[in-house]
Amino acid sequence: QVQLVQSGAEVKKPGSPVKVSCKASGGTFNKYAMSWLRQAPGQGLEWLGGAIPIFGTVNYAPKFQGRLTITTDESTNTVFMELNSLRFEDTAIYYCARVRRSGDYENWIFGLWGPGTLVTVSS
Amino acid sequence: DIVMTQSPDSLAVSLGERATINCKSSQSLLSRSNSKNYLAWYQHKPGQPPRLLIYWASTRESGVPDRFSGSGSGTDFTLTIASLQAEDVAAYYCQQYYSTPPYTFGQGTKLEIK
Fold it and tell me: For residue A74, which phi and psi values (nearest 5 degrees)?
């Protein structure tokens, strides 16, 4: 059974970048659309961006355009999220998520989630 | 961006009673081409990742108990828990996946036991 395994918690200073990884363990992801989402303390869920590894395409929420980079490594079934110029308000749990159906690149229904990675921005 | 608004923000229901959560979108999520509503519901418990409950507004994900149901069309949607169980205490979110990104969520509804 496929699981999404994320990298560990990070503590970063304002202005620095953070890179979080998400590895599909027990399966592949190249035929699934993958996304990164986050939940800040006391806030709701927010979609940051997504990638379709088989096509090499990436989309970002306008709010994060220019500051967020999503990359994939098909050789290791891993998707990465790098967020630059961190601010205090970027403190959040960051989740990777896979759409529920293989080959469905239009319906971004998040059927499988990683456990989350806490990113804390602190001076 | 499509704005999703849930009501209420929080809800307390007695065990065994019905819980109803509403979600309204700023534009219709109903596709004319396939007559589907591009709306999903998630359950989110503290310390766990979110869990997909419902998609296409009313299709229950595999393994989700049948006390959970989704309804609605266009801009107005409802998640109903027919008989609240203790394990249903969580936050619930609606999400639209209608068009081009960003895919947006409601602000969440916190469900507690009365």
Answer: -70, -25
Is A36 within 8 Å of B98 (Cβ atoms)?
no
pLDDT-derived band at A120, boundaries 50, 70, 90: very high
pLDDT number for residue A13: 98
Average pLDDT over residues A80-104: 96
Average confidence (pLDDT) per 10 residues, chain B, 114 residues = 97 98 98 96 97 98 98 98 98 94 96 97
**Best interface-test mutation with A: which of B4, B34, B52 has the largest number of A CBs within 10 A?**
B52
Per CB-CB distance under 8 Å, the chain B contacts of A115 are 48-49
The closest CB to that of A61, out of B49, B102, B106, belongs to B102
Question: What pairing do the DSSP bridges indicate for beta strands B90-96 and B76-81?
Answer: unpaired
The answer, yes or no, to whether residue A28 has pLDDT greater than 90, is: no
CB contact under 8 A, A60 and B52: no
- Chain-chain contact of B38 with A107 (C-beta, under 8 angstroms): yes
**Which residue carries 């989402």 as its tokens?**
A37
